Amino acid sequence: MSKVSILLKNALVVALILGIGLAAFPATRVFAAGLNDPSNPPGDHPKVDALLEKIWAREQTLYQRQNDRLAKADEFFARVQSGIDKATAKGYDASGVQAALDALEAAVDAARPIHENAASIIAAHAGFDANGKVTDRAQAHETVKLLGHSLRDSHNTVADPFKALREAVKAFREAHKPANP
Known about the structure:
5 helices
């Protein structure tokens, strides 16, 4: 090969490398959108509002169910206590069921103030109008979040003691199964 062809070959390789290197970088500058960029205005987000309204309605339904259960709790306690009394009168040891019932009664008493907090959140309905429509998205989001936490806390306060009572009754029934001939 001649010196000229080697020189042209090297020049072509250098040009190719420079071309690939420059192609990797953009030819124009890119800037972030400003705070008041009109290309993406905040505007209305009907899907977000509809979702908040749906969550609000669902949480109100959950609140009502929880309210109904708490209203019937004393009647439930009386029925279970009656069963414990009958078992004790027959000479059975129902102390495990009694302890579980006492724990559940204490848990329900602890859950009632939490549930009343949920009632006050619903009564205030910040961010929502009387028909459950969003009037202020930020307040509605906060209201839904607070109500959800309150309902969850009330439920979690009672859930484990209720499961313990159910297991205690199950164990009692298993231990005192009538003998079938």
